[in-house]
TrEMBL record:
Residues 15-24 have a biased composition (Low complexity). Residues 6-85 form the Ubiquitin-like domain. This is E3 ubiquitin-protein ligase parkin. Keywords: Autophagy, Cytoplasm, Metal-binding, Mitochondrion, Phosphoprotein, Repeat, Transferase, Ubl conjugation, Ubl conjugation pathway, Zinc, Zinc-finger. Pathway: Protein modification; protein ubiquitination. The active site is at residue 371. Forms an E3 ubiquitin ligase complex. CDD domains: Ubl_ubiquitin_like (cd17039). The keyword Ubl conjugation applies. GO terms for cellular component: cytosol; mitochondrion; ubiquitin ligase complex. Residues 1-24 are annotated as: Disordered. The keyword Cytoplasm applies.
């Protein structure tokens, strides 16, 4: 059994003897109480009551905007050293109204063997169950009360979706800031919204088994068990089959052939491992640069840095690599000044006549023989080199070869 001190933000919301209720802006009182890891919320409430002079049944403990179940233990709350518990003293009748709801919620939580949230913890270097935490978006205090409950991932991942009342700053128009903690090390971690518990024991679309407790689902209803999903990510990455897919970026689609659902959050690629994730970031940056007219790669073999530049002024086409400071022509990549601005070189004419821009990502692609069916390695689009449109049966029937 471990012991530590917890910060309590206390407000008296009970009706006074004159029948008047205190306002929400009543003075905030803060103090510290000692608690043990095995203390229940009911026992902590008793300590708060003893400190404030109230009855135990008048105390409500609030965490992450919701009232805590009296049977929950302090250890299960996973409070950090600087986390604050909000304590409200309310009339007994007001507290009884939520007693049954809290009991039902506690029973549901205890019956679930696996939590709904999963994170990738950099400290633990693995996928772990996560705990959701809510803070004031204005002052980062945890002493907040939610005015609206989140209904989905968009309410949690995007800012200013859930309004809250903060008992610390009491600012108008406050919104919640959500974060997730790893249950193993209790440190902040990135949430993986595509991972969910396999509560109904669905079969993995790759291995066909249903024993794994955790699956990846890209929103298409095609579950992939975590080991298969990790193997699929690694194999696809090693085969350079990731593609640029606006607005998701450098990503991959569902493992089921023909499904066009994509990994929408790049944090899932932490599953590639630390070294491969660094390569993924580098590849993603290079693909992004290659898709833009103002993107360049340093021609020096020992450098090769990818970078963006502002459009050149008038006829000055010189660019300088921000990494090695090498200066070259943005058109022909010749070091220093060249004659590109005066006359188009033969190489440029050849490139202009033999290459066309992908209709999806606009990157230049050169055709050197073969059929007119082009597969863009930048974005994964299949298109026709003749009509510069997505590949169709008409393209195959009318000008498959030329």
């Amino acid at each position: 059994m471990t012991s530590q001190e917890v910060i309590i933000s206390f407000r008296d919301r009970t009706t006074s003897t004159s029948g008047e209720s205190p306002s929400m802006s009543s003075r905030l009182r803060q103090f510290v109480i000692p608690v043990n890891s095995e203390d229940t919320v009911a026992e902590i409430s008793a300590k708060v009551a003893a400190t404030t002079g109230h009855k135990t049944d008048e105390i409500r403990l609030i965490f992450c905007g919701k009232e805590l179940s009296e049977s929950a233990t302090f250890e299960s709350l996973m409070l950090g050293a600087s986390t604050t518990l909000l304590a409200l003293a309310v009339d007994v009748d007001a507290k009884k109204k939520t007693a049954e709801k809290l009991k039902e919620a506690s029973q549901e939580a205890q019956s679930a063997a696996i939590g709904s949230f999963h994170v990738y913890c950099k400290g633990c270097e693995c996928v772990s169950q996560g705990k959701l935490r809510m803070y004031c978006g204005n002052c980062d205090s945890s002493a907040v009360i939610a005015r609206k409950e989140p209904s989905g991932w968009s309410d949690v991942l995007y800012s200013k979706r859930i309004p809250v009342y903060c008992t610390d700053c009491e600012a108008e128009g406050c919104h919640a800031r959500f974060a997730f903690k790893c249950v193993k090390c209790k440190e902040l971690a990135v949430v993986l919204p595509h991972l969910r518990p396999n509560r109904s024991t669905e079969n993995c679309i790759i291995c066909g088994e249903s024993e794994e407790p955790l699956v990846a689902d890209l929103g298409c209803g095609h579950p992939t068990c975590l080991p298969c999903f990790e193997a699929y990510l690694l194999t696809t990455f090693e085969q350079s089959k990731f593609s640029m897919k606006p607005p998701f970026g450098y990503s991959i689609n569902c493992a089921l052939y023909g499904c066009d659902s994509w990994v929408t959050d790049a944090h899932h690629f932490y599953l590639l491992g630390a070294e491969n994730y660094k390569k993924y970031q580098l590849n993603a940056a290079e693909k992004y640069v290659a898709m833009h007219e103002d993107g360049h790669f340093c021609p020096r073999p020992e450098c090769g840095a990818a970078f963006m530049v502002e459009p050149w002024v008038e006829e000055d086409r010189l660019v300088s690599c921000p990494k090695c400071l090498h200066t070259f022509c943005s058109e022909c990549r010749t070091p220093g000044r060249c004659s590109c601005a005066d006359a188009e070189s033969e190489d440029q004419k050849t490139i202009r006549t033999t290459s066309k821009r992908c209709p999806s990502c606009s990157v230049n692609i050169e055709r050197n023989g073969g059929c007119t069916h082009i597969h863009c390695t930048q974005c994964g689009e299949d298109w026709c080199f003749v009509c510069v449109k997505p590949w169709s049966d008409e393209c195959q029937w009318d000008h498959w070869f030329e």
